[in-house]
Amino acid sequence: SQAQVTRQERLRALGQMASGIAHDINNAIAPIGLYAEALLENEPGLSERGRASLQVIERAIDDVGATVARMREFYRQREPQLMLSTVNANLMVGQVVDLTRARWSDMPQQRGVVITVQQQLDPQLPSILGVEGEIREALTNLVFNAVDAMPDGGSLILRTSYQAREGAGEVRVEVRDSGCGMDEQTQRRCMEPFFTTKGERGTGLGLATVYGMIERHGGRIEIDSRPQGGTCVALCFPVADAAPAPPPAAAPALPLAPL
Ligand code: ADP
Questions:
Q1: What region holds the Histidine kinase domain (predicted)?
Q2: Does residue 47 sit in helix, strand or coil?
């Protein structure tokens, strides 16, 4: 449809802009990271405080790098390299908890804030068919959003479960926080690319990326949120068919759903 074409053109233009911005940011942060690392390694006379500050700088630079990578990833032409494999969602959750530790453990603690993280994993969870890197990226975005929503601490629960549905069942992966929640207008718009309530600190691409991922996986997303009442984002994936999955090397590329 006309609306769809316009939307795709707009996204392409935004993509070009985003990739230009990503390039500039990478150039700007590279020397910051390099000098912080060099100081930490080559200056034995640094005070404890100086050392701690440099470590925070290093970690912040890592985070910026990861954000830029996600922004790039969002627009990359994915079809050719996209390979499906059977994926264990429990494994993805565990890996994402490890990958994001600096954001919910170390950084908040430096500010005297406590975020408890709990994994509630269904041991009998069936496999899904998908792209591991994309699923990890999406869950990482959800964890970052949850942490952002709890500046004074709180609880983060990652939960997996199986839901029988007519036909094949679904694997449900929930990321639940006890944070600030969303008002009605934010809930309505939160998945739009570039919609953010975080001002300069936000890209507005987190949930848009998650949405693109779940669409490509033939699944759906549910968001349950209330102002001051926390947020639960659930990703529902169709379970892998009873038939064995094709070997990853020979697997067909995922069809790319229009954004
Ligand atoms: P960003 O995090 O860069 O703002 P997102 O697309 O990930 O971009 O999120 C868009 C907006 O949705 C956020 O700015 C925030 O207002 C809202 N949001 C997303 N996740 C949560 C959450 N867990 N709790 C409260 N608000 C959220």
A1: 20-241
A2: coil
Residue nearest (by alpha carbon) to ligand 1 atom 16: 197
Report the alpha-carbon distance of residue 180 to residue 187 in Å, rounded: 12
Contact criterion met (CB below 8 Å) for 68 and 26: yes
| CA-to-CA separations, 166 to 92, 128, 163, 169, 238, in angstroms, rounded | 26, 17, 10, 7, 11
The 10s digit of each residue's pLDDT in 95-139 is: 999 888 989 998 888 889 999 999 999 999 999 999 888 899 899
Three-state secondary-structure class, residue 76: coil
Measure the CA–CA gap between 9 and 17, rounded to whole angstroms: 12
What are the start-end ranges of the H helices in the chain?
2-42, 48-75, 89-99, 101, 107-110, 132-148, 184-189, 206-216
193 Cα: distance to centroid of ligand 1 (angstroms): 11
Ligand 1 atom, smallest distance to 197 CA:
14
- Distance in angstroms (rounded) separating the CA atoms of residues 179 and 150: 5
User: Beta strand pairing status for 85-87 and 128-130?
Assistant: antiparallel
What's the complex ipTM?
0.99
Instruction: For ligand 1, say whether the CB of 55 is within 6 Å of any of its atoms.
Output: no
CB 36 within 8 A of CB 57: yes
Give tens-digit pLDDT for 203-247. Answer: 888 999 899 889 889 999 999 999 999 999 999 999 987 445 455
The CA 217 to ligand 1 mean position distance, Å, reads: 22
